Amino acid sequence: MTQVGLVVIAMLVAVGVSLVLRRRKADAPTQGGYQIPTQLDRGDFVSPETPWLVAIFTSATCDACADVANKAMVLASHEVAVQRIDYVDDPALHKRYKIDAVPTLVIVDHRGVVQKSFLGPMKAQDLWAAVAECREPGSTPDPCSSH
């Protein structure tokens, strides 16, 4: 076989590969998909008889988790139970509720329905206002209001 023949075969292979690659669909863009539970079994958490629960799913290796937990702990009262669920201490609860990102904070009513949630760091004012609004709708100013 001559050198010209080898060059022709190499070009045909290159053209074939190029055609196959062009027809292949591009991969879909990466999708974020952290899940936040919409319902909890209040029996899995402290003070199930308390009207409200603020549950903070954390990890010991997460710097933001301690900050979020500290902001939430000041909300503890007779009406609001606050519980920090660290992955190292209670991996079963993280798995049960499919927590795949921390900090994840949920505000839960007496039936176990998640009324509001936060993923990642947050301002204390936003958290406290969210709990106030869940407990008493209309108690916080409308953020879209011009007043």
TrEMBL record:
<dbReference type="Pfam" id="PF00085">
    <property type="entry name" value="Thioredoxin"/>
</dbReference>
<feature type="domain" description="Thioredoxin">
    <location>
        <begin position="50"/>
        <end position="132"/>
    </location>
</feature>
<protein>
    <submittedName>
        <fullName>Unannotated protein</fullName>
    </submittedName>
</protein>
<dbReference type="InterPro" id="IPR013766">
    <property type="entry name" value="Thioredoxin_domain"/>
</dbReference>
<dbReference type="InterPro" id="IPR036249">
    <property type="entry name" value="Thioredoxin-like_sf"/>
</dbReference>
